[in-house]
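Question thread 4412

I'm putting together a teaching handout and wanted feedback from people who do this every day. The idea is simple: show students a protein as raw sequence, then show them the structure tokens that encode its fold, then repeat with a second protein so they can compare. Below is the first pair exactly as I plan to print it.
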Amino acid sequence: MAIRQRFASLNESVRLRGDAAHHEQTDAWSNRDLIPLPPSRRTWGWFNFFGFWSIASLNLANWQTPNTYLTQGLSVRQAMLVIVVGRMLIAMFSTLIAWAGLKWHIGFTVQNRYSWGLRASYIPLLQRILLNFIWNAVQCWNGGRLCAVCITAIWPSFARIENTFGPDMPTTTYEFVGFVVFWFLSTPFLWLRPEKFKIPFLIVCTWCSVGMLAWMIWALTVAKGVGPLWKTGQQIPAGSSWSSSWLIMAGINQSVGSLAAGITNGSDFSRYASARRHYVIGTITSCLITGILVSLIGLVTAAAAQKIYGEIYWNPPDLLMVMMDSGNGSSKARAGVFFLSAGFAFTAMFENICGNAIAGGIDLAGLFPRYIDIRRGAIITFLAAWIVQPWQLINRATTFISVLSSFSVFLAPMMGIMACDYYILRKRRVRLSHLYRTDDSIYYFWKGINWRTIPAWICGWAPTIGGLIVTVRMDPSPPRPLVQLYYMAFLIGFFISATVFYVLNLTFPVPDMDQNDDVDVYGTFTAAEARRIGVIPLSDDTSPAEYSFKIAQPHSAMDFVLVFAQPTAADKFAGKLLLAPAGICSSMLGIARIRTHGICGRGVSEAQEDDHDLQFPRGSVLGQNFATNAKDM
């Protein structure tokens, strides 16, 4: 008994607490970070989204992107064409997938519930959690390399630190110390809520952008121009089986696929927008300006450095170390290297925190909403880096990393299903209250599973999985059709899954797909939003009143809540009463439960305000007419 009591006490102590006054409840499907965001938490403007997407561009991978395409044999012009087209597609798909978050203020975790079903939504959720764990660890390792450069700029002798690891450890003390420093410096920011990231975004983006521009200007000034790299022409081998057109297609697919994970969970952050246009403006401008310019600056800097040092250095940490060595360790050289490497490091830090730790926190909250919120989930994701051991993955599991890098093969079909379901089948309407309960939810489908999504998703990646396998295995003579399909994997997966899902829903239709709630039970919408959507708003000037009543023909006792929305001139909802189970709505609305006897239908009933005499129309309650007096509480 004592053990059971201790366990119950421990369970109670770690459970999250709801806040009924703010329409927040904690149960098996919801907590503060999963329910639709209220207006008070939607504070991001267009410049905040510009910074958010800029952080995803101001990184080592985007800096080195031209190298990938030049290595494949494309010219500089063709490589930049791939980057421009890729960024345009990224902006388009990002806005497309994130729109549900902009309108309904829900994240990826909840967004999947109306497509996959409440329980089947764990399928995309678990995949995202796996990616978050792995990429968080890898990003921490890459950020650690930049921290090691920063430490070397302060104490040059650190570069010669003795390696205390044995031959079985696939890393050095130098690299491992950088990883530890990066991990510990990142940890305090996990306590920040996403709505508080606006100032860090501004600081980091300004720092890294100025640093990159200064680096390019310095390189061009010292070199007095660019090296031969800038004039690289098409270098496809004569006997190659791939034309430039196919290589460009492969590059575009790779460009979009590299950000597929961030596009998929775009609603996790779009829901913080204070207005829909802010997300659209910030996303498009960042993708088309920052995303393209960073790759161009990386190309120009590498070409100028080639003229200075006689070699091509695509990896910024390597080039920074060469700059410091060529400066003979002077204070000016070390200061410049520290400024640049610190800018890259902090950008990598916030990209990792937002893209992996916070996203992982939201996804884990979807699995265990009673115990995990964004903050706890982000901490768990970050702690998992020590279990994943990125030094092992990067140095000994390159095939596994290659598979994860190509995971867009599986994510693009998910996006196709999400887009088809939301825009075509549901006509951009979602019943929010049904996303957080299983009883009588229209999103419960069959045992919590919308079986239509599973074959649609499989059909999306089945044609391209063969190309992924032969590419990762680096087969010397892979079947050409498999590779061709793989070179178009993102678009193929997206449109095939969308088409199959649409056909399955036409053949096996789901009723009531284009419904939304009659009342804003979470206090999510502003008055203007509520009018556009067609729901009764719950705001300061439309506060709910409470009534208790007893129906004439008794049945089993049930808790009900009667919510009276005060009429306003704008919505003309004069005298309407909303009836809903108290167990569902009372904690959301922050009002007391009301005990009533009888089984009532949930609907809208007319009432006279003076004597509170309720008239239930025929069919609304057990198909009969009822009348009862309501006593104002």
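The second pair follows. I'd like the answer to focus on this one:
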Amino acid sequence: MTVLTPPFRIVVVEDNDTLRELLVSYLERPGREVFAADTGDGLNALLASQAINLVVLDVNLPYEDGLAIARRLRQSHPAVKIVMLTARVRAVDRTAGYDAGADVYLTKPTNVAELDAVVRNFVARREDTAPAGSYILNRSARVLTTPQRRQAVLSAAETVVIEQLALAGEAGVEMERLMQALHESSGTAITRENLAVTVSRLRQKLTDELSTTGLIVTVRHHGYRLGQFVRLE
């Protein structure tokens, strides 16, 4: 008997018609159903009629902003994943987003390829396709756990690096994108030299504290990728 996996259902909540249509069109893939709403009320109607897995949520919405919606959603539908999209790039805004319940916080202009990578990661986690003995990154605690259950506490910058690489999967992340993510997290300008130092120190920490080598792989003329699967929590 064949057991059919239900589609992964996504709601894009965005009041800009053009961007909403673009995101819906881009995220539609086999095995996914993508719905659209322009307000919190529209989202509520979909939540009442569909088993939603993920909400892509704009922060600056009319009537009820994304932060309020996220707090409410986290209480009423704790299993639903939340990806926030916003033009607010300050570290304090990112913190507010995570405090409200966001699982992932992405800044505008929206990088649709990065958003799709986030969705693929959530789909993989729902289907439990993470290989046995994966690394685990607890982003709120900033702790990386090895398959052997050894743990290392990471800095904020180190956590951002591994998070971005885990979201990207095998494609890896360009240096410029990593620099932007670090800038958005810290609020300070990041150069290639800063990034190289962060990665070097992270690799050394992984070796010294976890006896791990090869987790972060340099992709020549591009950036970095993970050498092994890291599950995000």
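Top answer:
Good format. For the second protein you could add a caption like this: The domain at 135-232 is CATH 1.10.10.10 (Arc Repressor Mutant, subunit A). The chain has a mean pLDDT of 86.
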